[in-house]
Amino acid sequence: MDFGINNFFDKKYKDSKIGHFQDLEHIDGLSISTVSCGLYDKKRDDLVLFYFRESANYANVYTQSKIVSENIKWNKKIKEKRIFGILINTRNANAMTGKDGYNSLKKISLNLSKLLNSKQIIDEDKPIEIKPSQILFACTGTIGEKFPENKILDNTKNLVEKIKYNQNKLIWIKAALGIMTTDTKPKLSMAECKIGGSDVKIYGIAKGSGMIFPNMATTLGFIFTDANISSSILKQILNLNIKTTFNAITCDGDTSTNDMVSIFATGKANNKEVKSLKDPKLKQFIKSVHQVMLNLAKRVASDGEGATKFVTVNCINSKTERDAKNICFSIANSPLVKTAIFGQDPNWGRIAMAIGKSGASVKLEKLSLHMGSISILNKGILDKNYNEDICSEYMKNENIEITVDLSIGSKNFTAYTMDLSKEYIEINSDYRS
Amino acid sequence: MDFGINNFFDKKYKDSKIGHFQDLEHIDGLSISTVSCGLYDKKRDDLVLFYFRESANYANVYTQSKIVSENIKWNKKIKEKRIFGILINTRNANAMTGKDGYNSLKKISLNLSKLLNSKQIIDEDKPIEIKPSQILFACTGTIGEKFPENKILDNTKNLVEKIKYNQNKLIWIKAALGIMTTDTKPKLSMAECKIGGSDVKIYGIAKGSGMIFPNMATTLGFIFTDANISSSILKQILNLNIKTTFNAITCDGDTSTNDMVSIFATGKANNKEVKSLKDPKLKQFIKSVHQVMLNLAKRVASDGEGATKFVTVNCINSKTERDAKNICFSIANSPLVKTAIFGQDPNWGRIAMAIGKSGASVKLEKLSLHMGSISILNKGILDKNYNEDICSEYMKNENIEITVDLSIGSKNFTAYTMDLSKEYIEINSDYRS
């Protein structure tokens, strides 16, 4: 692994737009392993295993695409109450690979569960029998290429041997690096809170890039907690939080063939189990999971291919949340708006264009528009105090915030995106080479 | 005018992707004038008048945006049976300009109608009184900037003096150049046909660029014919043809604040008036108008900002036309597909991704995909004979054709777009300077 770790302590991973991530430490009940299978020409880790040696509760949300990858099909079929691990590979999406792609996962899960079972016999007093159907898969990379089954199978033994039962910040960085594709920075986030009297940890990593139009990135997010919490409540918390976090950068989850956000709970915090989402004891936890998911989602948007600026788009006082969301994404998806932001040009007319084409209910005579704290439009007309030079100065910031106030209702939405630069084209016209 | 005309006979305007346009000549009943009002820093014509001295029948289709420019509001209010002219300016969209922008059009139309009436007194035996409400406006350019009323008013006299009652290919080129914004090429097209026994001409010009995402361009199209044909039938023909021409590049007309396609008929061909769209005598004419509109629409897509390739996307054998259209636009709008085409990379997985995210009904096991005549996917799996080297060779063409065969119905759609290059970013991050 000569990819990244040596640079860990320098500024390479510092994201000045979002802030540097806090260090992640150990989560009881979780083990991590990363190896290189040679899926890339250059030497880098490309296969990551999260292993729960006493199993874990879990919940997933998936892409809404009509064409889904073979690993998503595999995961969706799993009906086990608890799972033992998730294996993540990069470089190959295992999408449009048909039965062969699916059968590869069968073989790999069989092989991996056997290896984990033998390891348990050595390591544990009372080994548990892991079934192939208790392993999830996440894949990301090129669509339509043959899945590299053999390269992965050749490395599962090494992967299992390298399992570390204790985590420190370096292994987390390695894992976050190991799931990257065109990302330039690993994405990690953490929070701690209490459930009842017990301390619980919420750690997360994510990958995602190619974010010019949010709905085209492959985004993977993995959240880990030691909380003792049922799969059913995990699922509710995931659904509750996804809309304003990963789906605020990935447009309705109407995304790539491979998108997936998962949450795993080892239960090792030994808090008393909470039976209902509405129990006040869960309030902090729900908020903390949201915080971790939002932070990861922002990191994904901020690391959009070629991004030079992080852009927050708010739409407030809309009749419906749907309208607010449509306006936010119409602006956040507009290449004309995004290139203007890249060019540091306060060309607010393009924002108005994007509002107009969104199809949302708008009363022009009530519409206000802010760039940061600068008022541009006030009730449909150019603010008397608007000074383009001041706004041009604002556009030089790394963080740009656009706020559209419709003044016709009370619903709000916020979307996150980045600017559109020449580098995006360079990256994407040459992705596979 | 040192902008373009001198280069007319060299290759500058030859579009190797669509083919050079045929020369346009005279249309009886039409007059053209172009001047420079100094709306741009550089010297170029920026104000174009099409004048019908004995008036004309007409029909328009407009942008579906919720925020429309003041000139579209003006045009929509006009209930006159026949109109006398359309004035087109560039550089300023007259959008988000409020009452001031609208009042500018009032003043300009008043001034222009007076000047035209005085000119008629000199030129004609029986002058007709032109009302301000018999003049249409088309505007294109930056949104939200004060409309340059005075610069235009200062030049209407000159514009009227320069009116040419006879057209030749040069005046048409001047007009097509005069309505351009970031376009690199003037867009002209023509067809001739018969209605009953009479020869009629159909000439058209268009402008449009910024076409990376079709639904963000400002597209203007103006069709002129000497046919004797009612406004009502013109409207029906426009509606019939727009879907597969300008709306096949501009996504449901859900476009900029200023989009507008108009057709004008002087009646000078003196054909016997046809009363119904279904009259077989109109068949040729409808087809010829379609041909002119499609050719102009393709020129707009082909001249998309920074475009190096013209891309045709077909979706065939869909359950519904809506699905076929959604798939075509999902592909044609995908920056990942478009950058791959720019990079000449046969990365068909991105096309599959775009099909999947379109939300259209797709049966993977029936899906076939062609690039030109090269079969890539056959009933959901990679074609046994697929050879990436051959496909890479195909990607070097200037014209790329993608065909998705769903094999689950009988509806088809075709969309037109271009690739996404670094130059697009350059143009759009620096549009106003």
Write a structural description.
The structure is a homodimer of 433-residue chains. With 433 residues, chain A is an alpha+beta fold. Chain A has 2 domains: 5-302, L-amino peptidase D-ALA esterase/amidase (4-Layer Sandwich); 310-428, Ubiquitin-like (UB roll), CATH 3.10.20. The first copy, chain A, is built from 11 helices and 14 strands. Chain A has helices spanning 70-77, 98-123, 149-161, 169-178, 231-242, 283-302, 321-332, 335-342, 348-357, 388-394, 422-428; strands spanning 31-35, 47-62, 83-89, 135-139, 187-195, 198-207, 220-225, 260-265, 310-318, 368-371, 374-378, 381-382, 399-405, 411-418. In chain A, strand 10 and strand 11 (374-378) form a beta hairpin. In chain A, helix 1 packs across helix 2 and helix 5 crosses helix 6 (283-302). The model of chain A is unreliable at 1-11 and 211-216 (pLDDT under 50). At the A-B interface, helix 8, helix 9, strand 12 and helix 11 of A face helix 8, helix 9, strand 12 and helix 11 of B.
Summarize the structure.
The structure is a homodimer of 433-residue chains. By secondary structure, the first copy, chain A, is an alpha+beta fold.
SSE blueprint and pairings:
The structure is a homodimer of 433-residue chains.
Chain A: E1 31-35, E2 47-62, H1 70-77, E3 83-89, H2 98-123, E4 135-139, H3 149-161, H4 169-178, E5 187-195, E6 198-207, E7 220-225, H5 231-242, E8 260-265, H6 283-302, E9 310-318, H7 321-332, H8 335-342, H9 348-357, E10 368-371, E11 374-378, E12 381-382, H10 388-394, E13 399-405, E14 411-418, H11 422-428
Parallel strand pairs in A: 3-4, 7-8, 9-13
Antiparallel strand pairs in A: 1-2, 2-3, 2-8, 5-6, 6-7, 9-14, 10-11, 10-13, 11-12
